[in-house]
């Protein structure tokens, strides 16, 4: 293998991995110098000239001309009689530059040189990839699903770099097949066995924020600011937005005409319900907006304890809590308050709809009770444990727990 073949093979690698010419030149020079230093014990008398554009490497060994019989080191000195064979005008004390031929390295050294070259390139590529994605943390990327495993998905970006989307960072209802296009944010970059591992996420709040930037020009331009985002991936999300321009309705702009802008985001998030609300520094008003669509009659706030007591009419409680308790849980995260819900103005004898216990009792248990005609708390309490076990598919232990929750409502 000659110098041209070495440089050409490196150039092919360089084109594939996008390593700049200057870096390539330094790598080539370092690798050759290391080999020459090993051969001559020093590289101070050697010039390495790398011409990337021509694909050529020239090595010149500089030797001092000494009198015949006084050569002590053949690597750095040359006898006068040998020097004048190269150029008759040379004199003792001058320097002679001899071009070092690759064949002088020997086959084994040439192969070692190539291995070192490839090793250095791989190290550079790993470093380049790590830095590139370290700077892109929080950015959205589009890739292609290359391999689907039980615990993770391998995604290829537009440069065929391998990215990982773990199962824990996927929306629960996500389902991807090989070859499909996928969008996610860069969550973090780890180093494993000296190789960068880029982790993607579709459940991070930043993913939803980047989607808003893509779908809503006012968010991308900074006219609308996303103040806070909280999510239960695949179920529900709440986004607090604010605009410093009074002429812009931030909620209306984010939702779009007939929901045109928000629908694209909802589809990407597997039909995740998204509540967009106006941000305010007034905690009472912010809590009220966060618990929408429920209508609140009164709010009492403890700023020190970060607790809020919210009073609602009985028919609004289930709306405030939401299916599976997502609404009240997300409202608490969004506002930073622990929210307690109380029914306002109901008498001790008033019955309570079973749906209002959705935050304490699993929905499938409520469905079992409704299937046997029990739609309210008192209609369940009127039956014995044995009756409920016999009429439903619930176990006795489950029935006992349900009755305990329902009784506590009237105590």
UniProtKB/TrEMBL annotation:
GO cellular component entries: cytosol
Domain S1 motif: 138-203
UniProt keyword terms in alphabetical order: Cytoplasm, RNA-binding, Transcription, Transcription antitermination, Transcription regulation, Transcription termination
Cellular localisation: Cytoplasm
UniProt-listed GO biological process terms: DNA-templated transcription termination; transcription antitermination
Pfam families: KH_NusA_1st, KH_NusA_2nd, NusA_N, S1
Superkingdom classification of source: Bacteria
InterPro entries recorded: KH_dom-like_a/b, KH_NusA_2nd, KH_sf_prok-type, NA-bd_OB-fold, NusA_N_sf, S1_domain, TF_NusA, TF_NusA_bacterial
Molecular-function GO terms, alphabetical: DNA-binding transcription factor activity; RNA binding
Principal location: cytoplasm
UniProt record similarity statement: Belongs to the NusA family.
UniProt subunit comment: Monomer. Binds directly to the core enzyme of the DNA-dependent RNA polymerase and to nascent RNA.
Role played: Participates in both transcription termination and antitermination.
Protein name per UniProt: Transcription termination/antitermination protein NusA
Organism: Fluviicola taffensis (strain DSM 16823 / NCIMB 13979 / RW262)
